[in-house]
Amino acid sequence: MLNIEPRQSACFLAAMQCGTVRAAAEHLALEPSTISRNIAALETALATTLIERGRSGVRATEAGVLLMAFLKRQDRELDLLQSEFDALANMKRGSVSIAVGEGFVGDLFDNALANFSSMYPEITFALTVGSTEHVIRQVTSEQAHLGLAYNVGTDSQVRVEAASTQPLVVLVKRGGVFDTQKSFDLTTLATIPCAIPPKSFGIGSMIAAVEVQQGVRLRAVIETGSISALKAFVRNDMGCTILPQFVVESELSAQTMVARSISSGISADGVSSLLRKEGRKLPQAARLLIKHLKSMSAFTE
Amino acid sequence: MLNIEPRQSACFLAAMQCGTVRAAAEHLALEPSTISRNIAALETALATTLIERGRSGVRATEAGVLLMAFLKRQDRELDLLQSEFDALANMKRGSVSIAVGEGFVGDLFDNALANFSSMYPEITFALTVGSTEHVIRQVTSEQAHLGLAYNVGTDSQVRVEAASTQPLVVLVKRGGVFDTQKSFDLTTLATIPCAIPPKSFGIGSMIAAVEVQQGVRLRAVIETGSISALKAFVRNDMGCTILPQFVVESELSAQTMVARSISSGISADGVSSLLRKEGRKLPQAARLLIKHLKSMSAFTE
DNA sequence: GACTTTGTTGCGCTCAACGCAACAAAGTCG
DNA sequence: CGACTTTGTTGCGTTGAGCGCAACAAAGTC
To answer: Taking the domain A167-269, which CATH number applies?
Structure first.
């Protein structure tokens, strides 16, 4: 029965791909003598000549071509085996990449990832934080498996796995200078200094739409994508910010700030969305994570 | 990418087959600790548990069952690879046995074997020379892979790979006593001393058939299966011989003798044949040789 | 509770596999 | 045609991976 040592076949394949023993050595961070010996050992084990050697490098013999084809099939079968193991392990291992609007970060960790990671400790995450534009780009270019964004437009490339209406609320410091009424109309809001996200953020574009709709311009003292900065602005009683409530769940719980609705018949409802690329087959770990993400505050009423 | 060391998978398979680590150790002439460590190393490499361990021995987990199936498939593919290597190697090494009518020997070497051997120097030949009877017996009894014979009868055990009509001709010394006309009819031939092969030779039986057909008896001064003797007879202007022309190609080229046709409406056409046993699987080297044999003069018009 | 059988682990030894340096062979260039 | 460069190979010394041995822990059996 033929016996093929993985390190020997690795040297052989590298030599075939690189064209010379020395280039293969460089590629594998080994010495040329190591490559040469491993190939020779493989030829001995298989009792056939696998490469033609010369001043201009190495080429596969007919037997070498057969072996390359065999090793290629083996790689595919090892991939299949890996997939079977993964499926069997019930997604106990893998990596999921997620692009999120910064507003989601707290909710994501508090209400989804903490629990999920305790159940599947060997699943890892790659997280990028950015605007709704960024999130959509990451998802459609398949650099992220999943996306969490606010106020996503309709895009045929994007499938919405979960969505929830999340009205914007006015956030002011509890008992602060601006905590003057239970509900703000826009005219009143326009007199208060506020910090808001830019239009490239779903929240920012929503606010801009309301301004246009009502013919009012807010006193946007600060425009930033940093949710931390927006919270710090409010925490320091410098004014108000306008965000979906789920963004500040923990601050509301801690009673450091209060959420007041925006009144006077304006449509300030936004939608938070859980996104994936239409038609893309996700790894099992990502599919499982979706179920957990649906329990975030962002996706509940 | 999964990496499976053959010695690790060997220990795993042995443990599965034997039922305990210690039995596997005995089976492979190793220590139980070696088996245990190799299986553990394989589990680490594959990041999955392969066996359940207990006082009553070891059993495959679901992942272990998947791996066993994979390894079984791999064994079959290694067998196939081995067969491919063997087929490839057989073309370049091996031995072919051939039984030939002596008349074919010159043609065989001049127009086939010389070229073939330069291409495949490690292929050797076993040659027996004899009558058409001998050739057929060697082929049907599988003592020869291939046979070259003249005027083979129909035999269900024999497959004809190539055949060519090769008429008999009268051979006399150029410018000799008997070189008296461009075409001999049988009556004239009957007056000339001649040397011919015996009836067990295809040529001999063909000549006998013509004698009966025409009611004429040749002056057969010498009857021998030795083509050299037949040629020597003519070369010494002792008379004529009757052979297919391809037997004396080189003598004709050297202009030491001439070939004259046999006239007067008799059917003196014989057939030279390349034979193999019907249903016998020939080694690759013999299959390759067949292609070269077809370029002999005996098989061209 | 004593005994047996199983798989595992600590430890020391050995040799297989590596890197390094030198060599041989074969193109290339002036 | 000689000098040079690039290729693959081989001799030699070093080292650490893998083995065997002995002891241990766990779990059935009597």
So the answer is: 3.40.190.10
